[in-house]
Amino acid sequence: MNxxxxxxxxxxxxxxxxxxxxxxxxLWYKSNKHNKTLPQAYRDCTLKExxxxxxxGYHAVVPDFRDFIKTGSQALLALGIYDxxxxxxxxxxxxxxxxYTIKEGITKTTIHTPYGKLQSQxxxxxRMQQAGASIGHTVEHLVKGVKDFKAAGYVFKNLxxxxxxxxxxxxxxxxxxxxxxxxxxxxxxxxxxHIMKELMSFESFVFAFNDHLKEVEQLAQDIEVFYEKILxxxxxSPAEIIxxxxxxxxxxxxxxFFRTYITPYLKKWxxxxxxxxxxxxxxxxxxxxxxLEEYAASRIDVADSICPKPMTSLTLRQVRExxxxxxxxxxAIPSVCLLEKAxxxxxxxxxxxxxxxxxxxxxxxxxxxxxTTPPEAKFExxxxxxxxxxxxxxxxxxxxxxx
Length: 403
What we know:
Elements: H1 3-12, H2 26-34, H3 47-54, E1 89-92, E2 97-103, E3 106-113, E4 116-123, H4 126-130, E5 137-140, H5 149-158, E6 160-163, H6 165-175, E7 183-186, H7 191-199, H8 202-211, H9 213-235, E8 241-246, H10 255-261, H11 263-275, E9 279-283, H12 292-298, E10 302-306, H13 316-323, E11 328-334, H14 345-358, E12 365-370, H15 379-391
Parallel strand pairs: 7-8, 8-9, 9-10, 10-11, 11-12
Antiparallel strand pairs: 1-6, 2-3, 3-4, 4-5
C-alpha cells in the first residue's frame, strides 16, 4: 500500500499492516530553510524529498496560509478567511467596498458597508518567517463590539464564492501517493466559533456573549450564509478528507459552549461528508479535557494533532478510551519530545516506547508530532521515530468503523 491508501484505510479502520508515521514538518522545514539551518544532507531538498528519503508519509493537512490565490486575497485575513491556491474554493470580493495596504509587515484592511466602516490590522513579519509560521497575528480585530455586528453580517452575506477545483486537483497531483491532500474549508468550526476565534478579541467576545447573546447569535446566522457556501463547495469537490475547525481548548471553547455552538455544526457537516463518501477532520490541538466526548458526538473521523501529556492533562490511553476506534488520532507525540532542552535522550526513548504500549492494537492511529515539528527539533529524533515505526508490527486489525 502507498501512503495515500494507508491514510484512507486507517481512517476507515481497515488493516494496513503498519503503523503510519506522517508528521507535520512544514514549520520546521520553512524555518530551517529560511535560516539556512537544514541538515547538511538536505540543504537543497524540498520537504517532500526529505520525507521520501526518510521513508515516511507527506503531511498535507494544514495548508500554507501564505499561498494566496490572487492579489487581494490578503484583504480577507481581516475576516479570518484564507483564500489559498490549494483550497477547493475561491472567494469573490467584487460586491464589497474593500481596500487594503501592506506596510512594515502589517496588512491594514478597510471595509465600507451601509452599516458603517470596519477596519482591521494583521501582522506578518520577519520574525514569523524565521519561525516558519504562515499565519500571522491580528493586532486590531475587525469587530470591536456590538456596534459592528450589522456591518460584519452584511460583509459575510455579500461575499461571493466560486470553485477552485482545477487548482485543488493540481495540489492532489503534487501530493500524489505520498499522502492525502486534505480539502481545507475554515479554521473555525462554526459561525459562533468564527466570531470568537477570528473577528473579535477573546475578551470582547466574552463580554458580548454574556451581555448581548441575541445579537451575537444573529451575527452567527449571518456568517452561516457564507459557511454554507464554502462547505457545499468543498463537499462537491474531489477532496477525500475535509478540514473544518481548529484550535480548541477546554478554557477557550469550554465544554457547554462547544456542545451548543460547535458540536451540532461539526455533526451536521460530518453527516453530509459521510453521505458524499468523504471523511471529516478537525484540528484538535490544545487542552481537550471535557471535549473528547464532544468530538465523539460530532461524528468526526479524524482528530488531527491530538497532543497528550506532558503538554496537556490527558494521556494517550485516556483519549483512546473515549474515541473507541471510531475516531482516528493523527498526532499522539508531543512536540516537546523533539527538544533536547525539554526532554533528555533517555526520557525521549522511554516516552516513545511507553506511547507504543498505549496504542493498543494501533487501530485508527496516524503518528505525528503534535501540534507540529518545532523549528529547533533534534533531527536525529525524527529519524529515530521513523525507524521505530518502520520496524513496529501492529497486531492484526479487522473490520471497519461504523460512521
